[in-house]
Amino acid sequence: MRTVSFFNYPALFTTHEAEFQAIFTDIGRRGAFIKQKELEEFEALLASFLGTRHALGMGNATDALETALAAAGIGEGDEVILSSHTMLATAVAVHFAGATPVPVECGSDHLIDPAAVEAAVTSRTRAIMPTHLNGRTCNMDSLGRIAERHGLLIVEDAAQALGSRFKGRCAGTFGVASAISFYPAKVLGCLGDGGALVTDDDHVYECATQLCNFGRNAAGEVLRWGYNSRLDNLQAAILSFQLKRFDQVIERRRHLAALYDQRLKDVAEIVLPPAPDSSLDHFDIYQNYEIESADRDGLKQYLADRGIGTLMQWGGVGIHQMKALGFAQDLPRTDRLFQHMLMLPMNMALSDEDLEYVCDALRSFYGYRR
Q1: Distance of alpha carbon 11 from alpha carbon 266, whole angstroms
Q2: 205-223 in b/e burial notation, b at 16+ Cβ within 10 A?
Q3: Angle at alpha carbon of residue 72, lines to 68 and 76, rounded to 5°
Q4: pLDDT digits (tens, 9 = 90+) for 235-291
Q5: Distance, CA of 34 to CA of 43 (rounded, Å)
Q6: What domains are defined for the chain?
């Protein structure tokens, strides 16, 4: 029986093992572990890729989100609206920035619903934090109009969306600042934790550099309370190596998504994500391939019995469902999504033959011919 893992972590290393070993050796022999030229080069490369003024390597995307909020002046007494269909880290960053996270409904595209955002605005709302999920950018026209109408900031959670675009503009470049994740399973992943803060705002960038370096400025003078969150030099070098080949990665993932769409679009019992090139406004990179199925649990077990790994994002629990954290929102559409959603394998180790095997098994579950 063929085995198709949801994500092949060893392949992240073995695919470029010789190149990574050369990077390890070079950096190790120079003792260039923290805040060296490789980090500066990666930050410049990332900013250039996105078309932004600044990119700041950080320890992880959660730190980058919290720092972005704090550097933008959001804190105690403020509310930040976010989608309930997001990782807990999004709400955690708001909480530890001193503000209150307000989860709202997602739409049929699994992204934050602009109408729900509008309805959630109060006198305490200071910011909207859209999560560009599964490699797709939110409708930033609608969110931008809401922000402008109410005088709100936009801080983007672009953890899953590096390279995704809306109307030609990259995810993470619409608001005052954004965060990107380089967790190993991301489209651009390092060999550990890593993240970046991205901004065009010089003041936000300066504040962020101080906050993540114990409150010190470039001269080493302590100007504020801060903490320690930095992307280490080795991970930066690994990310630079991969970012230079990133267009090929995106092309491959879009190819896999097109194959899924071709093989599964006639299966009436499931809902597929938008196909590549199905919208002139959206350029998706397919960080994940998240479907909906009314018999999600049955399908998941059926695929598992055939050696196919799947995943319910965030354990199938939305932010608003985490009652221990004090949330009490009633979000029926998001509740329904979390009962139906399932992610199929989508990664660079997935072969066309693996994907055909997954599709054949899924079609068999619903009684369709292979």
Answers
A1: 32
A2: bbbbbbbbbeebeeeeeee
A3: 95
A4: 999 999 999 999 999 999 999 999 999 999 999 999 999 999 999 999 999 999 999
A5: 14
A6: 10-103+111-243 (3.40.640.10), 245-365 (3.90.1150.10)
